[in-house]
Structures are given as C-alpha cells and as structure tokens.
Amino acid sequence: MKIAFLIDPLDRLKPYKDSSIAMMRAAQARGHEVFAMHREQLSARDGVVSARATPLKLGSSDEAWYEALPEKRLPLTAFDAVLMRQDPPFDAEYLAATWLLEHAVAQGAKVWNDPRAIRDHSEKVSIAEFPEFAPTTLIARDPDELQAFIDEIGDVILKPLDGMGGTGIFRIRRDDPNRNAIIETLGAEGTRTLMAQRYQIGRAHV
Fold first, then answer.
1. What CA–CA distance (Å, rounded) separates 162 from 4?
2. CA nearest 87: which of 79, 97, 101?
3. CA 18, CA 54: separation in Å to the nearest integer?
4. Contact 43, 50 (CB under 8 A)
5. Is the confidence at residue 97, as pLDDT, over 80?
6. 8 and 96, same domain (yes or no)
C-alpha cells in the first residue's frame, strides 16, 4: 500500500514521542510505502487535488530517523490512504486544507480523519459533550466572565482553543498579580475565545 501522511515539517517532529513517526515506522515495517506531505503542498488543478509528496525511508535512530527521497506530485487518489496528522493551530490555512481534502474524497481519495469532521468538531470544545469526565470548564470570550470564573474557582488553567503541545497554557490562581495581563494578552483584548478549567492534579486537562 501507498500511505501518505499529511504532517508538520519533518524537521519539527520529535521522533522520541511523535505518534505520526511511530505510525510511519509501523507502516514501513509491514511493507507499505510511506510518503510525507505538508499543507502548503496541496493544490487543485482543473479540479484534481494533488500534492508534492516525499517518499520516506524510516530508520530506528531518533537522531537520523528518516531519509527523504525525491518528491513527486501525485493526485491524492494515487494513495491507498491519506492520513491527516497536521497539528493545530486551526487557522484559515487549516480550513483551506480541509476543503481540498474534502474535494479529494469526492474524487475517490481515502482520507482519514474525515476532513469535514476535523473541521466541524473542535478538539477542545468537544469536551463540553462529556462534562462528567472533565474538570469544571468555562469556554468564553468575555474577560469579565473569565475573571469571575477565576474568582469562583481559585486555581485554573487558561488556554486558547487553537493551540497544541502546551502552547499558550497558563495556570492562574485567584491572587495571581499577573492575571489581568494574562487574560488581556491571551484573549487579545477580549477578541479571542479561551478555555478556563479548574486545576486538578491527577485529572486530564484537554
């Protein structure tokens, strides 16, 4: 099988912990051809969605974990599977990629996860569907509402909705002298929706 991984730039991946690399190594070990592609390499010409894809040879060393072969422009239908493994932020370019992938699916490409699903189902906001399994959570844009939540809870985690890997996450206590500055900066003066959660040791914060 030919399996394409739509991922972040290869030099940004961390072989010792990145699940995409583990999947690529496992695919190669089972005899499959592995390709890497990036969002900026997607395009549609006369309605046909293609990408510049780089064939990879995976190694076991975390220092030199891959060898990149000459890239090829291939239609997404040329692959037996295209795995969307791109990390946030969820911005206009991420949105454009899901549109192109959705069009590729209509042409017969096999894309996982479903482009419409990853566009419409927010990774962070989805925890609102399962409040019994999450810390007390507020999703809001209004700085006053966020301030009131911190006053009520006393010790919270504050984060943007489009981050990943710990980026932009703050722990704020009720008496934190920097809380106003953190809320103003992270919330872009009240123009950006944030998630605030009760800080709890031993319970996951999504």
1. 24
2. 97
3. 19
4. yes
5. yes
6. yes
Q: Kindly state the helix (H) or strand (E) to which residue 197 belongs, with its residue range.
A: strand 194-198
To 5 degrees, how large is the angle CA 4–CA 206–CA 95? Answer: 45
Amino acid at 84: M
Residue with structure tokens 């010790």? 155
| pLDDT tens digits, 42-71 | 999 999 999 999 999 999 999 899 999 999
Could you list the residue range(s) of the whole structural domain that residue 150 is in? Answer: 125-198
Looking at this protein, which amino acid is placed at residue 60?
S
Tell whether 101 and 194 lie within a shared domain: no
**Per-residue pLDDT tens digits for 156-169:** 999 998 877 678 89
Helix axes 143-153, 179-186, angle to 10 degrees: 140
pTM: 0.79
Provide the token pair at 28: 């190669």
